[in-house]
Structure formats: structure tokens, C-alpha cells
Amino acid sequence: MINALLETLFDILQSHSTFADFLLLFTPFILLLELPLLFMVILGMFIWAKKEQKRVAFPKNMPKVTCTLLCYSEGENIIEPIYSLAHQLYPGEIEILVVIDGALANKKTHNVALHLKNEINALQNRELKVIPKYKRGGRVSSMNLGMQLASGEIFMALDGDTTFDNDMVIKAVQNFDNPDVVAVAGNLRVKNAKESLATRLQAIEYMLSITAGRTGLSSFNMVNNISGAFGIFRIEILKLLMGWDSGTAEDFDITMRLKEHFAMYPNWRIVFDPHVIGHTEVPSTLLGFFQQRIRWEGDLFYILIRKYINNIRPSLLGGLNYLFTLVGVYFFQIIMPFVITLYTILMLIFVPFNYLLGLSIIVYAFYFMMLLIFYILYIFLISERPKEDLEYVLYLPLFPIFTYTARINAALALLHSIINKSHLDSNMAPWWVLKKGNY
Amino acid sequence: MKQIAVFSDSSIDTEYDIVTFKSWEEFSNNKTTIAGFYISASCSDIADELIKEIRSSEFWYYLVYTEDLIQNRLFDGEKSLKDAFKSFKFSQELLSKLKLNIKALKREEKLLLYLYLREDYELIPEFHPKTKKLYKYPILEFISQTSNDSWVYELTAKSLLTFSKIVDRVRLCNQCQSAHLYFIDLCPQCKSINIKESKILHCFSCGYVDEEKQFQKDAGLVCPKCLTQLKLIGVDYDLPASEYKCYDCSYIFKEPYVVARCMDCSAENEPDKLNIEEFHKLKLSLQGQEYLLLDQKNVIFSMFAESLKHIKIDEFKLFLNWMTSVFKRDSTFHFLVVLLEFDNMHKFINYYGFTKTNEIMEELSRRILELLRETDMLSMDDEHRLWILLPTTSKKGIEERLLNILHELKIENGPQLSVKLKTFYTIKNPLKEKSNAKTIMNDLLQSEENK
Ligand SMILES: [Zn+2]
Ligand SMILES: [Zn+2]
Ligand SMILES: [Zn+2]
Hints:
The complex is a heterodimer.
Chain A: H1 2-14, H2 19-33, H3 35-53, E1 65-71, H4 79-86, E2 94-101, H5 107-121, E3 126-133, H6 138-149, E4 154-159, E5 163-164, H7 168-175, E6 181-190, H8 197-218, E7 230-234, H9 235-241, H10 250-260, E8 269-280, H11 286-307, H12 314-317, H13 319-350, H14 353-382, H15 386-390, H16 399-420, H17 431-438
Parallel strand pairs in A: 1-2, 1-4, 2-3, 6-8
Antiparallel strand pairs in A: 4-7, 5-8, 6-7
Helix pairs in contact in A: 1-14, 2-13, 3-8, 3-14, 4-5, 8-14, 11-16, 13-16
Chain B: E1 3-7, E2 18-21, H1 24-30, E3 34-39, H2 47-55, E4 64-66, H3 81-97, H4 107-116, E5 122-123, E6 126-127, E7 135-136, H5 138-144, H6 151-157, E8 161-172, E9 181-186, E10 195-198, E11 200-203, E12 209-211, H7 212-215, E13 216-217, E14 220-222, E15 229-230, E16 237-238, E17 243-246, E18 252-253, E19 257-262, E20 268-269, E21 275-284, H8 286-294, H9 296-300, H10 302-306, H11 313-329, E22 335-342, H12 345-371, E23 377-380, E24 385-391, H13 395-408, E25 419-425, H14 437-446
Parallel strand pairs in B: 1-2, 1-3, 3-4
Antiparallel strand pairs in B: 5-21, 6-7, 8-21, 9-19, 10-17, 11-12, 11-16, 13-14, 14-15, 17-18, 19-20, 22-24, 22-25, 23-24
Helix pairs in contact in B: 12-13
The complex binds zinc ion (ZN) (3 copies).
One zinc ion is lined by residues 173, 175-176, 178, 262, 264-265, 267 of chain B.
């Protein structure tokens, strides 16, 4: 097997006289582009794991925590998230604000929340408040309303369809024992991972690209997105920022606005804590997954290009952060998908099929090896459920293909966003599906 | 109208015919006939003593008004002398319609009279937390001289009083009828009181159930049985809504066993098996008014009472004794004793009312009296029983005719009058050595009816 691979590679290197040869020469370059980032992330993972060993059971300070649960049409599905907050093991006070967006249209969700009120309020140090917003105002208005009504020192913006591990608040609050920490990004796991192959692959993506990746970056204070589905803030900082801005990708937006303050307050830190765990549902089909990503990527493009292009200056964001933002966000999230897509198209046109096949196998093998190392490091250094996560080793071989298609999809999404200003409409169907229907 | 007795420190200038007294002593020495009492503000401080004296004297049923408001139901309220005068006049008129021997009244009749003399009067149960059943009717207490109020409900059963509004529902100890109960929750398995409500966890991976405390380890939860880390509620473990644990037998349960323990006799009662007593506001019914106005017994048996053959029950017994002695000496002198028991008179009156009952009874009395001879005697007792003594009369003839009369008495659409006919005939029932009026009448009461 390995012999066959080497032979193919040898063949490829021997025949470099055409445009195809030129393309092939660039292959290792493209492969290696991601390597420095990967090494940095791995180093960060080790740093985090070392710190984690010193973690004690309870936080030093137990301030009052306000959890704002953003609800819409979840109905009975908000019971579990509310219970998971009410029965947190955190000994301090927890105020649960259930903000129901469009309470008139979502009477059921409203009633379910009201129904739980007495039961939750009977618990020690727990208070449930149901806040109906009769007209639909969107996530941003819900979060900002929660921020205004919050009485806790720590504010959590949480999604109504997310349930939380019972030590979530303890672990989250622990990070604020460090006075420099202004915000903590929580870690999302896939609740319905076992539902289908698509959800299993997404679970791997959450574990590796999101959990492991962000943990590593967090060690260098380079968290680039505090999820609005799971973001934890000091309330004073939120008030300083005057909450979230309406528009799309508010999560990214508020993170960027936080980062704008980094130059002025160089000791501020945003932490991604992989052990602050929430569980969320992901699309159960590949099509659903692609549709979701198209929306996300479109939002991202809008924020990066249209809103922050002028703010990306070294003075504002601080040296290392500048480099990362530039390289990490712009290059990997916007340029790389295009490079890969374009490269694939060129290869399909100019490189003979058998070469392409051989090359694909080599690239795949390379990626898979890196993935395997990364995965093993994740299991040993970071995962708080190593046994559970180890089961996914069986699906790991499919993952490189999955990521590859996701990249292509991302390129299509970005293209769509550039051409059609897709962020302005909230239609969740992929644009290429829509266009087909319209013509 | 009679004078109004006014208690006052000073003389009062008024158009009404009053006579003033400074104390109860002064009044009771005076012996005037009066229409009612009025206690002026100047005597408010001795009002409580006065009302006690009034209600336990021969004037117990009189209206007593006060110038100042006094919180005591034995008074009839606060009124100006002018208004009080009107009420006195009204009650005097009502009283004059009654032909009652007030001194001989039983407690039931006393109560009816008290209510009758007061316009729209309601008997209101008062909350007294220290009393056994928590409520009492202050008026009943001075009328019956006991703290047992249950006889008042017999009057409602006879429809002489009606419920106007329920005031409270009190649960009572099965053993001693005390309302002083407290509730304790116990372990349903071993009945121990050593139980505590606590968060109970249910481990999904091995099914173990115990208190949250047993699972706590550092800042997390670990199942003590299978050692699984329990992180996510609803997936790793469950928290069934608050449950109890018994610290004596370790039993875990949702609903404790509740008993109501009596503070007076310490009996433990099951809560849903406690006696229930309802306290109502009570009012005099129309039938109660009629009862007083007509004097029930006399009305129903008025034809008999007015008959020349009627004698008092004691006299009846004397005659019967006399005849028994005669018969013992001369067995050819025989006699017949007939007893008619009117069993359902109360129900009958409740259903048809006094007037209709009276019509029916008049017809019945007329027919029965027609049967009797010059020498026959009859008498009534308190229990709606008619006794007839018939000297030298043969049993068969009179018995058949009496039965005929009773059979003919058919009322359409309603309950029938239930009358039991019993006879004692000297020829059929030989007299013993010891026989006398008392034994004969007792035997008759206990014997079977003739059909
Ligand atoms: Zn277990
Ligand atoms: Zn027990
Ligand atoms: Zn008792």
C-alpha cells in the first residue's frame, strides 16, 4: 500500500513538463499552509492541558449569574434547557431569564415556561423569570433585553434549544476568578450525534475544528468568536459595549468589538473553555448542514468585509491578534475555500485522471495522519468525555472528505454572499437550490 | 305599650314612655312590666354584666339595644332610642299573638321564640379557636345552658330552622370530636417521622436511586454504584421532582403518609376519614313560625283535645289502673285499650305544612270520635300517640272499624300518614298478678301492630 503510494508520487514528480506539473508542484505548498497554524493550536492545547491540571473543584468567588435563555418556538423543548440550568451544581445564585421572542405567536413556549415557574422558584438560589416579547424582535433584541433586566454579575447568552452540563456554571464562573477575563466562550457538543452519519461527522467537526482548535487558540488569547448561543460575559463589559448590534452574525460582531478594546486594555482576555459544556442539536442531514453553513459563512463575510475592513489595523487590535485575525479569519475562512475550489477545478481540467487519483490518495493520507494525531491529542488533552469521544475513531476516515466538501460549500456560500447580498434575507435554503426553482 | 327599661346614669328627657334604672338590682326590685331594654352610653361599662343578668332572668327573650356598639351577640345591636322603640313595639305585637306558657318552654321552643321575636334574625356561629369545635352559637349557650350545640341541627332536620349560609367546614377527630388537629407526614413504609424532602437522583446507566448528597463528588456528580460521571440532566441522570427519604428504613417515596393527630386525645386519624361538621348561619323557617303560632301538638290533636272524652295522660293512667283492679276482682268486666301511634308526624308536617295536616287530622279525629261511646276515654302523650280506653267493648268490632278508617285515609300525590294500631283486650290478654297501667301501656308500646 505504502509502496504503491510512493510509486505514484514518484511518477508525479517525474513528469513535470505541463501546466499540470505546475499545479502538482503547488500541492505540497497548499497542504503545508495550514501546518503552522496546526502546530500553534497543538502547542496551545498542551498549554491548556497543563493549566487544567491545576484546576480546583469550586471557583473562589460565587457571584450571582444571570442566564438568558433565548426562546422562540421551542415549545416543550425548553423544559430540558431550563431544568439543566435550574439544577446546576453551582452553589451561588442563578437567575434564569426566559426571553420569549414573539410570545403571541409562540403561546405554547410561553405557557410551558410559566408552568415551570413555581417549581423552579422553590429551589434554593434559583429564580426563573419569564419575559415575553410579544412582537418578534430577533435574537439581538432578546439578548439586549436580557442584559438590561439581568441582576447577576455574570451574564450568559444561551440558546433555548441548548442543554447544559450540570457543572457548566461552576466551570464558567471559575474563569472569572482571573480579573482579566472579560468573556468566556462556552463549548458546544452535538446533542443528536448518534442520529445519523451526518450528525456524527458534525460531532467530529465540533470536537476537532471547534473544541480543539479554539482551545489551542485561546491559550494565545486568540478567540475569534464568542457564540451567541453560548457566550458568557461580565455584565459591566457588556454594558460598556452597550450590548449586541442588530444585523447578522452578532456573535462575531460583539467579539470583534471586544477585541477593538484590546489595544486599550492589553491585559483583557477572552477565554474559550472546552469544559464549559452545552449540548445543541445539529442538522440531521448533509443538505441541512450545507444550508446552515451557507447562512453562517454569508454572515461572516458580511461582518468581516463590510463592517470591519477599516478597523483591522495593528494599533487597534494588538500585534499578535492582528496577525491572527488577518491570517486566521481572512485567509483561512475566506480565501482558503476559494483557493481549494479553484485548485480542484484546475486539477480536474488539466491533470490526467490517474494522476489526480494518486494525488488524492496522497493528500487524503496526509490529512488523515494529521487528523489522527490531532484527534488523539484532543482525546488525551482536552476531552472531558474521552470514552464517548473515542467511539468516533470509526468515522474519522470519512472526515477529510467531509471537510473537503464543506470547504467547497463554503466557497459557494461566500460567492453567493458577495453576489447576492444573501445576509439581508433570512431565507435558509441554499441559494443554488433557490435559483434552480426560480428559473 | 308597656314601658321601656332604660339603664342610664342620669335621667333622660324623651317623648317615649321609659323608666330608668342605674343597675340591675334597682330594676329587679322594681317589678314593672316592660317592653324591652335599652342601655344608654353612660352605662356601657356595665353593659356586659347587665346582659348576663337579663339573659339568665325571666326576661331572657327580651330585645336589648345599646346606644354604643358593643361586640357581643347577646345584645341586639346599637340603635337610637327612637328606632329601638319601633322594634320593641314590633316584638310586643308578635309576642301578643302567641299563646305560650313561656315558663314551661323546652329549649327548642325557647330558641324558636327568641328568633321569632327578632326580625330577620340570623343565628351566627362565632369563631372561638379555643373551643373544641372552633365554633359556637352564643345564643344557644344561654338557652341550653350547655356547650353542646348539636341539638340545633335537629331543629333543621325538622325544618323549623333553615340554613341561610355556610360559614365554615371543620374537620374533627374521630375519637373525641375535637377540631384541634395537626398534620404530620410519615414514612409510608415504617411510619417513622424521620423523613426529609430532598433531591433524589436517578442514575440512567445503572438505575441506582439515592439522594443527591450521595452522588456529590467535588464539584460534580458521580454514581456511587456504577461510578459513572453524571454530567447532563435528562441524559446521564434524572431528577424526579422533590421526593422524600426515610432515614430509619431508607425508603424513598413521592408522597408521605399524612395523619391528623388530635391535640386533645392524641388519636391519629387518616385525613380523609375525619368527621366533618359544617357551621351555618341559621334562620327561623316559616314552619318554625307556624309551630310557635299554632303550638303543634294542640293543633294536630285539637279535635281530640276539645272532645269531652279527652282526659290528661296522668288521669288516663289512673282510670286504667282503676279498671285493672276492677277486672282482677270481676273477670266478667272486660275492657279494651287502643293505641294509635302517629309515626311520621314531623315528616308529614314538613311535607304538607300545618294547615293541610290540620285538615287531614280533623277529618280523622271526627271519624274516630264518631266510633266512641259515651263511656270511652282518650288521651295524648308528647310523642304523637293517642290512647283510647274502652270499657266493656268487644275488640273485634272497634278494631275493624278503626282499621277501615285508617285504610280509607288515602292522600293523593304524597307521603301517607303512618299510623300503627295496637290493642290490648282483657279477654285475649290475661292479666297477671302485677299488671297495672304502667305495664299494660309499656307492653302495648312494645307489641306488634294489628293489621
Ligand atoms: Zn449508576
Ligand atoms: Zn421508613
Ligand atoms: Zn381526639
